[in-house]
Design goal:
Largest sheet: 6 strands, parallel
Number of strands: 11
Order of helices and strands: EHEHEHEHHHEHEHEEEEEH
Strand content: 15-25%
EC number: 1.5.1.5, 3.5.4.9
Pfam families: THF_DHG_CYH, THF_DHG_CYH_C
Strand order of the largest sheet: 1-11-8-7-5-6
GO cellular component, one term: cytosol
CATH class of the largest domain: Alpha Beta
Helix content: 25-40%
Low-confidence stretches: none
Protein name: Bifunctional protein FolD
CATH topology of the largest domain: Rossmann fold
Structural class: alpha/beta
Pathway: One-carbon metabolism; tetrahydrofolate interconversion
Mean pLDDT: 97
Number of helices: 9
Oligomer: single chain
CATH superfamily of the largest domain: NAD(P)-binding Rossmann-like Domain
Shape: globular
Bound molecules: NADP nicotinamide-adenine-dinucleotide phosphate
């Protein structure tokens, strides 16, 4: 039987509706949740991601504003903007959209964020809290979205063997921590694979759930998946498509034939992507709630 497709767009809409209810409650209590987005330069993908995020904010009743700096902005200028926003009470969460231009050290910018206003959960304080199993702070959006996709499709990772392909600070490692924490969405046995893993298939074939976040098309194929396993494909890759006006199309890290053996699979679009946006909104209302209750 072919795999069921995980409708990330529908699950994200469900979460956005929950966020809208919380935003309304916060407004009623006198606090309008606010998100500040920072774009440095003219990266088309960054502009499009931020516009998706601010549109989602508006729909959920979250105030948002985008701050643009030129591609030539220095690290000091970006950090000065972060500090200005740290001090601005209209914003409960700040999102420096990555990637930043090469002259700006991304880690230095993330470190300059007030951890209470860290929209993406990438500040060392929030990553440290995640490691300690304290989930009241911001949780990295894409890993958090992956966990919600599993839970909301009845694929609770508890007691399962999950193989995560990729060890980035943005996706792979925080996801492995979330999945192994003793908490809702955790309690899995987790294996992390990367480019120094000698035989990737040996691991993925033993997994009940494979999350592939390698950023390389074709990383996971049908032969590498145990029949009945769940496959979450985080990857977004451009491949040539001369028949298209753009000249390319977007594919994930898993080949389409994994759908012949898996029980559930995320589609290339409408899978993990919408969840990343939804979890950003979750982090924003959580930050506003903490500020309201003086826990910021
Ligand atoms: P990244 O920083 O480039 O990390 C990729 C990781 O995958 C690295 O740890 C790398 O190993 C590992 N890897 C690459 N090729 C591999 C292979 N053949 N076998 C095993 N491991 C391999 O990327 P990222 O930021 O984590 O993002 C991963 C992908 O997810 C990208 O396509 C990105 O665009 C996408 N993404 C999507 C969303 C979304 O919302 N849909 C959000 C974030 C990211 P090494 O450490 O050994 O190099």
């Amino acid at each position: 039987m072919p795999a069921k497709l995980i409708d990330g767009a529908a699950i994200a809409a469900e979460i956005r509706a929950e966020v809208a209810r919380e935003a309304a409650a916060l407004r009623e209590a006198g606090v309008t949740p606010g998100l500040a987005a920072i774009i440095v330069g003219d990266n088309a993908a960054s502009i499009s991601y931020v516009s998706m995020k601010t549109k989602a904010c508006a729909e959920a009743g979250i105030f948002s504003e985008t701050f643009r700096l030129p591609a030539t902005a220095t690290q000091d200028e970006v950090i000065a903007l972060v500090r200005q926003l740290n001090a601005d009470p209209r914003f409960h969460a700040i999102l420096p959209q990555l990637p930043l231009p090469p002259q700006v050290n991304e880690l230095a910018v993330i470190d300059a964020l007030d951890p209470a206003k860290d929209a993406d959960g990438l500040h060392p304080v929030n990553l440290g809290k995640l490691l300690r199993g304290e989930l009241d702070g911001a949780i990295p959006c894409t890993p958090h979205g992956v966990v919600e996709l599993l839970l909301r499709t009845g694929n609770d990772p508890a007691g399962k063997h999950v193989v995560v392909v990729g060890r980035s600070t943005l996706v792979g490692r925080p996801l492995a921590v979330l999945l192994s924490n003793k908490a809702r969405g955790g309690n899995a046995t987790v294996t992390i694979c990367h480019t120094a893993t000698p035989d990737l298939a040996e691991h993925t074939r033993r997994a009940d759930i494979v999350v592939v976040a390698a950023g390389r098309a074709g990383t996971l194929t049908k032969e590498m998946v145990k029949p009945g396993a769940v496959v979450i494909d985080v990857g977004v890759n451009r491949v040539d498509a001369p028949d298209r006006p753009s000249g390319y199309r977007l594919v994930g890290d898993a080949t389409l034939d994994v759908r012949e053996v898996a029980s559930w699979v995320t589609p290339y679009t409408g899978g993990v992507g919408p969840m990343t946006v939804a979890m950003l909104l979750v982090n924003t209302v959580k930050a506003a709630r903490r500020a309201l209750e003086g826990r910021g």
